[in-house]
## 1
Amino acid sequence: MLRRPRRNRKSESIRSAVRETHLSPTNLVSPLFLLPGENKSEVIKSLPVASRMTLDFMLKEMEASIEVGIDKFMIFPAIPEEHKDKVATYSYAEDNFYLRAAELIKKEIPEAVLISDVAMDPYSTDGHDGLVIGKEIVNDQTLPILDRMAVAQAQAGFDIIGPSDMMDGRIESIRTAMDEAGYYNTSIMSYCAKYASGFYGPFRDALDSAPGFGDKKTYQMDPANKNEALIEAELDTQEGADFLMVKPALNYLDVIHMLNSEFDLPIAAYHVSGECAMLLAACEKGWLDYDVVMPETLLSIKRAGADVIMTYLAKSFGEFYHR
Ligand code: PBG
C-alpha cells in the first residue's frame, strides 16, 4: 500500500499540524435577550443555556464572556405588550429601553461589539416582521419603518445592524438612510438566506414573538430552495451588505458552503435556538457527550464556510477553549 492516510493521524501533535479548520472564540457571537427594568434574570425553559435578563445582569454576562474571548453580542429585546402597536412606533422611540441599553453598554464596555436586530416582530401587535394590512405583510410600506429603526440603533451605538425581516430592498433602503444620517461606518449584517424554519421555537418563547396569525412563509425562504439563496445574496451584495448570513445553520450547511464559494463577502451563520435546544436535550438525557458534540457542532459550521457564527453556546465554547 503506497498511500496510508492513517499515518497523518497517528498522534495528536501530527493531527493538530494537519488540521484544516480552526475555530476560535473570535469567530463566535453570543445572542442575548434583554428585559426592561432591573435585577431580573429568567432561564428560558426551552433553551436552558440562555436567559432573558435586565441590563445589570447583561453587563455581567458580557464581562464574563469577554474573559473567555467572546466580545461580540447580538441583542434581542423582550418588548412589553403595552409598547406594541401596528407600526412598531416604540422601535425608534426616544425612551426605548433597548436603545438606551446599547448606549450604556458601549459606555461601560467599549470593547464589546454590538449587533442589533431589525424587524418589526418584537414591537408589532401582529407579531410579523413587516407591516400588516388586511392579511398581507406589505413590503414597501415596511421599509421606512425599518429605516427609522436602523438609524435609531446606529445612533444608540450599535456597531452592526442586523436586518432579520426578509423584506425585499431593505438593505439598500437601510444603507441609504444610515448614510444620509451620517452613520456610514455602521455595518450591515444581512439575514440574507433566512428560511421559514421550525427551529425558531425557543426564540419565540423567549420573546413571546410568535406571529399573531398565519406563518412567515411569504417573506422567509422555502427550506427546499437553494438557487433562491443566490438571488438573495446577489441582491444584498449589490445593496451594500457587509456580511451575508445563512439561518438556520446546521440544516443549511450546503447553503453556507455555496454562498462562501460564490461570494467574496464574509459569511455568517446562525446556529438557531431550536438547533441548540436539540443538542442540549440529548446531552441532558445522557444520550450525547456535550464536551465532544458541542465543539464538533460549531466546528462543522465553520468548516462549511462560515466566518462568523451566532450561537447560544458561545460562552460555553469560550470556557471550553481556555480549559
Ligand atoms: C425575528 C428573529 C427570529 C430569530 C432571530 N430574529 C425569529 C423569527 O424569525 O421568527 C430566530 C433566532 C433563533 O431561533 O435563535 N425577526
## 2
Amino acid sequence: MRIDILTTFVEMFAGPFDESIIKRARESGVVDLRVHNLRDWTHDRHHKTDDEQYGGGDGMVMLAAPLIEAVEDLQRQAATVTHIILTTPQGRIYNQSVAEELSRKSHLILICGHYKGVDQRVIEYLKPDEISIGDYILTGGELASMVIVDSVVRLLPGAVNSMGSVEEDSFTSGLLDCPRYTRPREWRGMKVPEVLLSGNHAEIGKWRFNQAVERTRERRPELYRLYESTFPLRKEGKGAR
Ligand code: ADE
C-alpha cells in the first residue's frame, strides 16, 4: 500500500512513524509511507497555506489551490486508484471496521485539516472521505492522521508477525478483549486464574470468551447489543481462542 500525507507540520510524524511496527512495515516494503510539506505546493514567496475566512470570524481557512494541486500531483505519481481522506471533526466517526475498509485500498492520500478547516471547494472538488477520530477537537488533523495510518498499517499482511493476533483483536470479534496475564504466577498475593495454567485449551478458550462477553456487557452495553444482534446463534464458550 502507498500512503501520502499532506501537512504543514512534517516533523510531527517523525516519532510515531519511525518506531516499532510502522517502522518495520516501512523498512520491509509493506507500506510506502511519505509525509509531504503542503508548502511545497504554494506559489507565493511566503508559502501561505491558509487565509482569513470570507464573512469574517476568528481562525484561518486552508487554501484550496495548494491542497488540490498537491493531491493531483500525488495521484499522478502513484498511477493507481487513490482514496482521499480529510481529517476533520465534521467527518464520519472512525472505528475498526473503517480501518479494515481502508486497509483494502491500494493508495491513501491523507489531508491534515487545520484551523477552521479547509475551503469548502476542496471538499466539493476532491470529494474526500471526511473522517473524525472522535467527538473532541484536536489542535489539528495530524494526530488524527497518525491514528488512522497506525491502525490501517498494522492490518496489512506482513506488518504484524502473527496475523492470528490481529484477528483476535477486540472490535474485530465484536467484543472487548479478555484479561491477560504473564509471569510470575503469583505477585503480592495476586494469583493468575488457575484455568490459564491448566494446559486445557478448550477450557482456556471458554474462559477467555466468557470474560470477553462479560466485560463487553458491563463496559460497553451498546457494543454488546450489536454483538448479540450480529451473532444471535453464537453460544458462550464457542468460537473462542
Ligand atoms: N481535527 C481536529 N479534531 C479532529 C478530530 N476529532 N478528528 C479528526 N480530525 C480532527
## 3
Amino acid sequence: MRVLSGIQPSGIPHIGNYFGMMHPAVELQEQGEAFLFIADYHSLTTQPEPDDLRKQVEGLAIDFLACGLDPEKTVFFRQSDVPQVAELTWILSTLTTVGVLERAHSYKDKIARGFTPNAGLFIYPVLMASDILIYQSTLVPVGKDQKQHLEITRDLAIKFNNTYGDTFTIPEASIRDNVAVVPGVDGQKMSKSYDDTIPRFTGKKTTRKTIMSIVTDCKELEEPKDPKKCNVVALFKLFADESQLKAMRENYRAGNYGYGHAKQGLFELMWEYFEPMRQRRDELAENLDYVWDILNKGGQKASGEAEKTMIKVRKAVGLR
Ligand code: ADP
Ligand code: TRP
C-alpha cells in the first residue's frame, strides 16, 4: 500500500491545522509506505511573494519534522522537485472536460470569495490528480473538503486507462471524518480566514494572551457552568487525558471556578504539550541544511518514482 498526501504551505500554523491535518499526516507513516509533499506549485495559484513562499515551505518542513515526521519512514518532499507532475498535468488536462472543472468546489469557492480566477486555479484539480497518480498511490488521506478532488482523480485515472491501456493505480480516498473541527477563540471554526486562531509556536506571553481572549458566556465566578457549551473545555479536551478532563468538568459543574481558572489550566496544558516540539523546532531552525537535505533527498526519491510512471505514460499516449 502506498499512502500519499499533500499540504499547501500557507499562513502561521495554528492548533486547528495541527489536530486536523499535521498530526494525522504524521501518523500515516505507521500505515504503509508514506509519501508526503509540500504543494508549492498549488500555492502559486494565489501568487504569494517569492520569498514568502520559500519561507513558508521551509517553515512547514521544520514543523512537520518537529511534530514527529520521520524521514526514514516517510518520503517527504517538495512538489516542485518533481517537475514531471507538471508534464502529467498537461497530458491529463487533455482528457478533462471544462464542465468538470467548472463544477469543482475549489474553483467555485474562490470565485465566490471574489478572486479573479487564473487558469492555474481552474486546473488545480488536474494538478492534484497528477500528484496522486504519478506515484501510483493507493490511499489518499484528506479532509472532507478534498473529497470531490479525489473523485475527479479516480475518474481521470479510469478514463486514461480505458483510452490508453492500464497505466495508473486507481486510488482510494480516506476521508478524515473523525477529526473534530477545532473551534477558534470566538467559537467559530479556527481558521486564519476568521482571524480567530491560537498559533502553535508563538511566545509564552502571546499564547497566554490569546487563550485569555477565548470568548465565553458571562456567568459569575460562583455560578455552576456547563462544560458542554464552553469553548475553553472544547480546546482543553484536545490536550487533556481522561482524568484531567473529568476534573475540569467537575470544576465547571461545582461552581466557584471561573473561566479565568479554566483558561489558565488550558494554557498550562497546551504549553506543556507543545514543549518538546518547540524545542525540536528551535533546533531544526538552527540546522536548516539538515532540513533541506531531507527535502532534497525526498525529492530525488519521489522523482525516481514519478519518472517510472512517466515512461509508461509518454509511451502510452504516443510521445515516445
Ligand atoms: P485555514 O482555515 O486556517 O485557512 P487551511 O484551510 O489552510 O486552514 O487548512 C489546512 C489544513 O488544516 C486542512 O487540512 C484543514 O482541514 C485543517 N484545518 C484547518 N482548520 C482546522 C480546524 N479548525 N479544525 C480542524 N482542522 C482544521
Ligand atoms: N489540495 C490539497 C489541499 O488544499 C493539497 C494537495 C495537493 C493534495 N495535491 C494533493 C492532497 C494530493 C492530497 C493529495 O489540502
